[in-house]
């Protein structure tokens, strides 16, 4: 290969006279004359000539411009193959193109990274042309070189700038996710274009791992926190706690490696425990076997700023993704901008989460506990839409406005935010107050209209109020009035129908009188009230949804109200697109000829009081179903709900189902992190929860929506031993 350069002296060729045959200005055999002519023409452009007839294709002539560009005099270059200008940074792809062109005896032009005699690199545009004699034999190669360093660096800077802008755009898209787990996973994936690995450590109940490149499932040792591993992680902890600003370079050792040398500039103490093992999983193993599991590895940590302090630390390998020594200043500045954008996103996500938690707490504080209603079987269920972060405006109420009367309410306020929850609370209080004051449902809704107009509630709402009065002999009078709401459904003798009458406009709209409709219900009859979240779907109209509800009610053969409700949720409400509230009332009477589904579900607040509530529900249901493993079921439910309250986020879903394989317990929460079995502790509280579950049942977990579901199946014949404490 030849590197074209300018300036130099003619030298003798293999036949002794120094002129390459075939040169236009030379006669055959007169190389010196041709090279002299070439020297006269090529004064400013580096030019070289090589002789492929000699071993290794050495240079036989260079001009003075070559010496000025490369620093190599003719006596230093002639007789050597031009590869002495290359180094490890020379592009092998371009070299192969050059070799292929020369082998084909065709002119070829490439751009190579070369190195001058003083060690400084430069970009060299090399054009090599073959020289043939009269017989067509290759006798020389002429190379012309142009120093294009300025052009290449400008192009590389522009490409790098475009790449950084593209990366920032992808970062902005990744951190725009409302789900923090998915957002961090996407972010670390985007950063793979810049660094070999990255991790985000969040400050939340200590310093915990948020996301890591290339690790699908994080180690299941709860809590995955740095609280117990601070020794040796001073650089990260200092930044996470806001004691340092700006990026910091440090070194962290892998598992089993010796600590970093404290005297080494910028080196911190070696990491220990889980972080060391994590580094071993993430970092690409060195090619040199002697370096495997070697000493401290360079990392760069960048604080993630929030509105009121540091929210975490972005930790990356201090090396570019394509290989090399350390990140450049522009890359570090880019990571600082990434951390800033991540901080803004995390701060916004936390504010939104706080708003949703506030709305959820407000909403659930206004939803009633299921009261005991003498002489009636009542079941109720409420769940907000998962797409709206557990915040909704639907509600239900069950009350006893008189000694022989029961009041039922379902309502729907437009929206999924704090204002909707607040409007729902106001309406619930108003309806409850007037239901105790007035007997006729139409009159109750008229009074609600009048008060709502004065209160200036800005959200529109629909409402259904029904009143059941005991007529004796197991017969009840059902009266109702509707304010823009779905009709109630009555099931009698296995036939269901949507009740007409009592309809009217939305709450607070107009001042017209409200009508009341009346029907009687006898033993075994079932009354169903619900919001549109149970029946409305994007794929069908509300009218078709009501028809589907009527059909589902006819197919419900539960022996109690809960069995009917579970059937409706299974058929219509397993994947609601909106909030839903359902109230089912059954007048006690003869049981259906075939048993209904043995399923129950509840939505519980994410607070410690839910553990006792769940335990009581499991105990009552076990006795109702006659389960031989009721005591074990009570213990398993208590442990799983307790773990969801302690380690999960948001409300807790509890489902129980019994079939020929035994009792299936499922508990949902919004934390996607897997449950972890910790070592049993002989001293101190806790540490036994999942060990107890493991001894009493087969159990596991799965991702569910944005959270997880932990399940346990108990056989009908419990094991001889078992027990523990949570």
Account of the 3D structure:
This protein has 726 residues and is an alpha+beta fold. The protein folds into four domains: 7-147, Beta-Lactamase; 163-354, Beta-Lactamase (2-Layer Sandwich), CATH 3.30.450.40; 368-597, PPM-type phosphatase domain (Phosphatase 2c, domain 1); 609-714, Heat Shock Protein 90. Helices cover 32% and strands 26% of the residues. Strands 1-3-2-6-5-4 form a six-stranded antiparallel sheet. It has a five-stranded antiparallel sheet with strand order 8-7-11-10-9, sandwiched between helices. The radius of gyration is 40 Å and the shape is elongated. Mean pLDDT is 76; it is low at 1-30, 214-233, 254-276, 279-293, 681-687 and 721-726.
Question: Can you tag this structure with a few keywords?
Answer:
Phosphatase 2c, domain 1; six-stranded antiparallel β-sheet; 16 helices; Beta-Lactamase; elongated; 726 residues
Count of distinct strands: 26
Overall pLDDT: 76
- In CATH, the homologous superfamily of the largest domain goes by the name PPM-type phosphatase domain
Percent strand equals 25-35%
Count helical runs. Answer: 16
* Net shape: elongated
CATH architecture call of the largest domain: 4-Layer Sandwich
Question: What Rg is obtained from the alpha carbons, in whole angstroms?
Answer: 40 Å
Q: Indicate the multimeric state.
A: single chain
In short:
The protein is α+β, with helices and mostly antiparallel strands and 726 residues long. It folds into four domains: 141 residues, 2-Layer Sandwich (Beta-Lactamase); 192 residues, Beta-Lactamase (2-Layer Sandwich), CATH 3.30.450.40; 230 residues, 4-Layer Sandwich (Phosphatase 2c, domain 1); 106 residues, Heat Shock Protein 90 (2-Layer Sandwich), CATH 3.30.565.
């Amino acid at each position: 290969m030849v590197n074209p350069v300018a300036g130099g002296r003619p030298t003798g060729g293999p036949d002794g006279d120094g002129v390459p045959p075939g040169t236009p200005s030379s006669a055959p055999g007169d190389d010196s004359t041709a090279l002299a002519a070439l020297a006269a023409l090529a004064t400013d452009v580096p030019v070289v000539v090589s002789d492929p007839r000699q071993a290794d294709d050495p240079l036989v002539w260079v001009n003075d411009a070559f010496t000025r560009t490369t620093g190599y005099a003719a006596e230093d270059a002639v007789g050597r193959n031009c590869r002495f200008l290359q180094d490890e940074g020379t592009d092998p792809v371009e070299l192969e193109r050059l070799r292929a062109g020369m082998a084909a005896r065709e002119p070829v032009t490439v751009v190579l990274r070369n190195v001058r005699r003083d060690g400084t690199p430069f970009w060299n545009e090399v054009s090599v042309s073959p020289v043939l004699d009269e017989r067509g034999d290759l006798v020389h190669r002429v190379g012309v070189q142009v120093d294009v360093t300025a052009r290449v660096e400008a192009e590389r800077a522009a490409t790098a700038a475009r790449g950084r802008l593209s990366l920032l755009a992808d970062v902005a898209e990744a951190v725009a996710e409302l789900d923090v787990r998915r957002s961090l996973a996407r972010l670390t994936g985007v950063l793979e274009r810049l660094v070999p690995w990255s991790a985000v450590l969040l400050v939340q109940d200590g310093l915990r791992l948020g996301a890591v490149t290339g690790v699908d499932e994080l180690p299941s040792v709860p809590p995955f926190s740095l609280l117990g591993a601070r020794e040796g992680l001073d650089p990260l902890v200092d930044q996470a706690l806001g004691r340092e600003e700006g990026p910091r370079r440090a070194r962290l050792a892998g598992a089993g490696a010796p600590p970093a040398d404290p005297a080494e500039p910028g080196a911190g103490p070696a990491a220990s425990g889980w972080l060391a093992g994590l580094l071993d999983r993430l970092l690409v193993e060195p090619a040199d076997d002697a370096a495997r599991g070697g000493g401290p590895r360079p990392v760069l940590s960048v604080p993630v700023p929030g509105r009121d302090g540091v929210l975490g630390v972005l930790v990356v390998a201090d090396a570019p993704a394509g290989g090399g020594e350390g990140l450049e200043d522009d890359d570090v500045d880019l990571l600082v901008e990434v951390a800033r954008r991540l901080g803004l996103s995390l701060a916004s996500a936390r504010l939104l989460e706080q708003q949703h938690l506030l709305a959820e707490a407000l909403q659930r504080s206004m939803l009633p506990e299921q009261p005991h209603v003498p002489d009636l079987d009542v079941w109720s269920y409420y769940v907000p839409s998962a797409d709206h972060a557990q915040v909704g405006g639907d509600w239900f109420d069950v009350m006893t406005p008189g000694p022989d009367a029961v009041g039922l309410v379902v309502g729907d306020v437009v929206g999924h935010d704090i204002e909707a929850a607040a409007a729902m609370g106001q309406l619930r209080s108003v309806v409850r107050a007037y239901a105790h004051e007035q007997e006729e449902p139409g009159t109750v809704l008229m009074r609600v209209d009048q008060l709502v107009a004065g209160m200036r509630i800005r959200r529109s709402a629909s409402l259904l109020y029904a009143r059941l009065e005991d007529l004796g002999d197991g017969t009840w009078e059902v009266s109702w009035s509707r304010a823009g709401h779905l009709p109630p459904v009555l099931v009698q003798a296995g036939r269901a129908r949507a009740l007409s009458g009592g309809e009217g406009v939305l709450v607070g709209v107009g001042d017209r009188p409200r009508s009341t409709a009346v029907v009687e219900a006898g033993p075994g009859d079932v009354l169903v009230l619900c919001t549109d979240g149970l029946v409305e779907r994007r794929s069908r109209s509300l009218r078709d949804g009501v028809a589907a509800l009527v059909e589902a009610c006819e197919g419900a053969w539960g022996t109690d109200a809960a069995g009917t409700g579970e059937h409706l949720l299974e058929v219509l409400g397993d994947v609601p697109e909106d909030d839903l509230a359902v109230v089912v009332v059954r007048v006690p009477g003869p049981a259906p000829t075939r048993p209904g589904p043995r399923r129950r579900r509840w939505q519980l607040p994410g607070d410690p009081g839910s553990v006792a509530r769940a335990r009581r529900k499991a105990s009552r249901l076990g006795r109702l179903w006659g389960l031989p493993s009721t005591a074990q079921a009570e213990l398993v439910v208590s442990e799983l709900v307790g773990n969801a309250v302690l380690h999960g986020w948001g409300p807790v879903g509890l489902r129980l189902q019994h079939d020929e394989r035994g009792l299936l317990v499922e508990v949902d929460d919004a934390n996607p992190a897997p449950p972890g079995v910790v070592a049993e502790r002989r001293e101190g509280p806790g540490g036994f929860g999942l060990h107890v579950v493991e001894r009493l049942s087969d159990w596991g977990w799965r991702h569910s929506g944005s959270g997880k579901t932990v399940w346990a199946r108990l056989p009908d014949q419990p094991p001889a031993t078992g027990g523990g404490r949570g």
